Amino acid sequence: MHEKTITITIDERGNSTPDLEGFAGQGCEKAFDDFRGGDMVKVERKKPVYYAGQQIEREKSRR
Amino acid sequence: MSKYSVNQTVLREEKYLVEALKEMGYQVEVHPDGAPLNSYYSDQEAKVANIIIRRDQLRGAYGDVGFVRQPDGQFATIKDELDEYRGYGARWLGRVQQLYKEKQTLAMTRAKGYTLKSREVIETSQGEQVRLQFVARR
Fold first, then answer.
1. Do A47 and B2 make contact, defined as CB atoms within 8 angstroms?
2. Is A39 helix (H, G, I), strand (E, B) or coil?
3. Is residue B6 domain-resident?
4. What's the DSSP call for residue B62?
5. Which residue, of A54, B13, B30, B66, has the greatest Cβ tally within 10 A?
6. Does the distance separating the beta carbons of A40 and B129 come in below 8 Å?
7. At what angle do helices A25-36 and A48-62 cross, to 10 degrees?
8. How many domains does chain A have?
């Protein structure tokens, strides 16, 4: 099982950029919410791996 | 990585804001009910703030700098307009937000079971970046 890591970069303009590795689907959303901490989202993009995780979760729930 | 976002830090929690300002070397006044700010022109209408740095600590500033809690819970900055161009503008506020966000993140991760793996300070052409790496236990 892959380790779940989060790298957050905070710049001098007050922007923070969380970068998640090893997460998928709802686990990804939960971790993002934790690290956003009520901040204002300026840019957000989901990557293909995110949707792949959702597909796996759907298949598990069908079984 | 499955998701990417850029977030603008919102100052909401007094504790981390005060800690950030102290780390910048300021002695901070905290007034839960608000206190007036001093400005360069004594005849200007006094503005009220909850967290205040007096101008004797702000090199070159015309007035005090304050943070006032707004109805939505966010802190807004109050200062003399002229001080925007005397070192207390967006860049100064960005540094406050950077320190605030780091402190808030470290506290949140301790409470929610993430483990700090590393902390790096990276020099870039756009200033210092703080990079924190965590491992999720779950």
1. yes
2. coil
3. no
4. S
5. B66
6. no
7. 130
8. 1
Domain, as residue range, for B82: 14-111
Q: Which domain holds residue A16?
A: 5-62
Is B68 within a domain? yes
Q: Does the pLDDT at position A61 exceed 90?
A: no
- Partner residue opposite A42 with nearest CB, options B8, B98, B132: B8
Predicted TM-score of the model (pTM): 0.88
Q: Is A2 an interface residue toward B (CB < 8 Å)?
A: no
Name the pairing type of β-strands A40-46 and B3-8: antiparallel
Q: Is residue B127 part of a domain?
A: no
Angle at B109 between CA B105 and CA B103, to 5 degrees: 25
What's the rounded mean pLDDT across residues B95-122?
Answer: 97
In this prediction, residue B32 has a pLDDT band, given cuts at 50, 70 and 90, of very high
Output the six-digit token pair for A29.
């959303």
> Interface pTM (ipTM) of the complex?
0.89
Structural domains of chain B, count: 1
Residue-wise burial string across B70-85, b where 16 or more C-beta atoms lie within 10 A, e elsewhere: eeeeebebbbbeebee
Are A31 and B136 a contacting pair, CB within 8 Å?
yes
